[in-house]
Sequence to fold (276 residues):
Amino acid sequence: MNSFSNMWNHPKTSAAGLLIAIVTVAGVLSQQGISLGKAGSGSVVTLISGLAAALLGLLARDPGETDSSSGSTAKLGAWALIALLLPLPFVGGCSGSAAAQDIVNWTPALQSAVATVDSTAALLAPADAPIFAVATVGFDAASNVLVSQAKAYLANPSASVLAQMQSQVVNLQQQVNVAVLQALKIADPASQQHAIAAVQAVGTVVTAILALVQSVSSKAQIAQMAGQSTIKLAAVRRYLDDDRSAAIVAGHYGIAASVARTQLAQFEFAEAQAGF
Fold:
């Protein structure tokens, strides 16, 4: 009875909660390739998500709101902003050209992160540097190939280039996961922290690119990519710093770290469901 009473007494908040749920579920469905049919030039899921987000925005800016409830309005507005930002290309479906451009936009960050990995060995204890160097030896070559493929896909978004990119991004993701596990063998605590932080920066960018590649891939192609993933996210997840990854994503998209953290959590859940 209390639930029904709360819904009756706070209809605006209840409606906002329902709309947020619709936007979130629609985002997950889109990422899994579930469209529920066509609607104009898009899909039914995209249409529902867009309508729900628009209604949520109107609800959060109700002009009839009194000053006494300004705190509730501010909270509702914050939730509306989060829901509206969730469908960003990082975690939601997007057009091939937009995804291609965003992948290329991430490549300078990837190259910078790999360069940081290359210089990190100098910060480690002498006994630990060789372990780190062996663990990350393939980063330069793998990242350079991925950058070249991303630029080629932007210039000509063909199925063949996409297939190469699907394989390469999983290959680099696996190298990152291996490097995280190898870094755990570093004995000196300070050296281990430096090593994992450097590898995680690369991994965060690779995760973003992986999400974008998936957004333009079919369900069967995503399943094939997941099949190439032998070291799963769950094996390395507990060794990573959520705040560090969120800061990288937030800086790239110009959003709040809390929103970036929500996006990462949503994507990681979808990844686990897909078999990564």
